[in-house]
Each structure stands twice: as C-alpha cells, then as structure tokens.
C-alpha cells in the first residue's frame, strides 16, 4: 500500500484539506463519529491509500454547475462583479448590470434539461475511467444536492434535481467508484466581490446585488475578508467554519463517497 507521501499530495491538491482552526472560545460543534482518526494531525500517520485508488489509473471529474450558463469561465460568479473583466462585460451586455441582475439570476437559467448521467457514465467507463467525481459545491456557494442546511441548492432551484445523487447512481450502475469535491471553504472571501460596486460613472457607488440582505445566505454577510491581494484563502470567521462543517458533513453522510 502507498503511505503518507500520497496523503501529502492530496492535501497539496486541495482534495483532502481541512478548514482553519476556529478560535478557542467559539469551537465548531462537531458530530462525533467513531473512526480511526482524531483531531490530532499525527493520527493521520496511520492513513493508507485504499487499494482501489492505488490501482485506478484514470478517473473523470465533472466541474459543472450554474456557472456553465454564461460559458465564460468557472470563476464567473466572482469575476462578473469585478469591474472591467471580460466576465463583467459579458454579464452587463447579456443579462444587465450586476446591481440589479446578479448571480442569483443566473442560477434559475441552469436547467440541466439535457443531463443524461447514465449515458455519460457509460461513455466514461468505456473510456477506461475507474472512478468518477461529482462537484458538490463550488466557490459560488450553490449546493448541487438536496442540501439540508442551505436553500440555494439544485433540488430547490435551477434544474430541480439532485445532481450529485444522479451522478452517484449512474456511477454505481456503471461499476465506478464515486467521489465528490467541495470548494465551499474558500467561498466566504472569494465571493466578497458581490458586495462591491462600479468604480466609475454612471453607476459609481451603486452596490451590486450581493449587498442586498435578503440574499446574504448566497453572497455571505458583508465583511472585510476579501480573497486575493495577499489575503488567505480561508476565513477566520468561526460562524462560517460551522456552516462549512455542517454542509460538507451533510454531503459526506448522505452520499458516502469513496473520495472527498
């Protein structure tokens, strides 16, 4: 079996990363489940890569969600709120100004009406894939499953179907191992651009729709932790640590993936 060097690779790739430790006075409320690991990093010394992953030379990952609608990049939800970027210009021309027509208005346009997971999975298996990974949630803060803790999810909005669940069923049917990926941990700072505004006339200072309190659960509450410019990927906000933990725990508990 492969040992710790592979785990280090997973951590570097962001596939097995943990959120930053919360402040001692506001600990994250963990769901305690008996298992081989503890909160001590040293316990990971016992980790061994599963045989199936060691032997699987090829897997396919679906990086697909509402950001596919504009066909302008997987960081569309962030960059559409950055004045002067190609995504901003595309959004302004196609959908309107982000003070009125924001990412919340892109989500309903993602219908997934031609999504055929069984046919796709059969193709992936034929290509030689031994495992398949579904995106669970991107930095855009939109859950692709029937999320227990978040109303902005694919069952309640957009395609109105369990994208992760449908991928999982197709993978099992085709005999592939199933995994999920989550990018939620970095969303808090990544999505802060939605709280900005144009820096020039005629709409200088008019806030984008991310500043509207009724959508704070999508765009996050207003804060000063912005991703980029030397700022860290992950927030120090312990309330968000708890939200991250709750939602990812829900994802893992519900679908029991072979790979996270």
Plain-language structure description:
The chain has about 260 residues and is mostly helical. It has two domains: about 1-15 and about 45-55, no CATH class; about 60-255, Glycosidases (TIM Barrel, Alpha-Beta Barrel), CATH 3.20.20.80. It has nine helices and three strands; from the N terminus they run ααβαααβαβααα. Strands 1-2-3 form a three-stranded parallel β-sheet. Helix 6 (about 165-175) links the parallel strand 2 and strand 3. Helix 5 crosses helix 6. The radius of gyration is 19 Å and the shape is globular. Mean pLDDT is about 90; it is low at about 1-25.
Structure, briefly:
The chain is mainly α and 260 residues long. It has helices spanning 4-13, 51-55, 76-79, 86-94, 117-126, 163-174, 187-190, 216-219, 238-255, and strands at residues 59-62, 131-137, 177-182.
Name the average pLDDT: 90
Rounded to the nearest angstrom, the distance between the terminal CA atoms is 19 Å
Domain tally: 2
Helix content: 25-40%
- Structural class of the helices, strands and pairings? mainly alpha
Helix and strand sequence: HHEHHHEHEHHH
Biggest beta sheet summary: 3 strands, parallel
Largest sheet strand order = 1-2-3
| Rounded radius of gyration (Å) | 19 Å
The number of helical segments is 9
* CATH architecture verdict of the largest domain: Alpha-Beta Barrel
CATH homologous superfamily classification of the largest domain: Glycosidases
- CATH class type of the largest domain: Alpha Beta
Shape descriptor:
globular
Are there runs of 5+ residues with pLDDT below 50, and where? 1-25
Number of strands: 3
